[in-house]
Amino acid sequence: MLAAESVLLHQTVSAPLHKPLNDPKRRFEQLVLPHFDAAYNLARWLTRNDHDAQDVVQEAVLRAYRFFDGLRGEAKPWLLSIVRNTFLTWLQINRPADTVGLDDGLIDLIPSDEDGPEVLAARSFDRRMLNEAIAGLPVQFREVLILRELEDLSYKDIARIADVPIGTVMSRLARARRLLAESLGAISNISGTQVHK
Fold first, then answer.
1. Closest Cα partner for 40 from 28, 57, 62?
2. Could you give the count of Cα atoms lying within 13 Å of 66 in the half-sphere of its Cβ?
3. Where are the domains of the chain?
4. What is the CATH number of domain 22-100?
5. Which of 8, 15, 76, 121 is 20 to 30 A from 91, comparing alpha carbons?
6. 110 three-state secondary structure
């Protein structure tokens, strides 16, 4: 009887503790949810508002789950493209004129022990100027800039997300950078300050 008990114990222990990866919910959680922060970051920059970004991401994740069987290739660009399309739908319904201003309390720099109050104040001012300049870009330029510079996606992935040719991504990115530089230059000239690194 001891041998039968050890066989039974061995069979019980060898059973999988987790559901197999072919379970759609489990696969979704493992492949898509790790990119939730990137999805929120894109939505936040596109909507320029935390609450609206949460709404857009919530709807996008629901759409992603609903159409998860359509995932081909990498999950991050696929999810970000759903976020973008969800944003465009949301924008048509909620803000066709895109008139909502920038929230001044965006990202604060983490202070360093070596930096004095003057350096921290200058960096904080520069960060606010940069955030305002990015938020002031038209949506098609803002989205490629965020996807490339903050999400570090390839031109190919950005083209897939934005549903445009790679050449269009490159020209939009170049124009976004130029507009951003012009905007920062104009802000710097108006305020009489210089942007610090």
1. 57
2. 7
3. 22-100, 101-197
4. 1.10.1740
5. 76
6. coil
Average the pLDDT over 71-91 and give the result.
88
85 φ, ψ (degrees, to nearest 5): -65, -35
Residue 26 to residue 127: CA distance in whole angstroms = 39
Torsion of CA 78, 80, 86, 89, to 10 degrees: -100
- Is the pTM higher than 0.90? The answer reads no
Instruction: Return the pLDDT at 149.
Output: 86
Q: Compute the distance between CA of residue 137 and CA of residue 95 in angstroms, rounded to an integer.
A: 16
User: Is pLDDT above 60 for 119?
Assistant: no
Under a CB-based contact definition with an 8 Å cutoff, are residues 44 and 147 in contact?
no
pLDDT at 167: 95
Question: What is the CATH topology of the domain spanning 101-197?
Answer: Arc Repressor Mutant, subunit A (1.10.10)
- Tokens for 45? 């920059």
Rounding to the nearest 10 degrees, give the CA dihedral for residues 44, 188, 112, 48: -10
What is the pLDDT, as a whole number, of residue 197?
Answer: 43
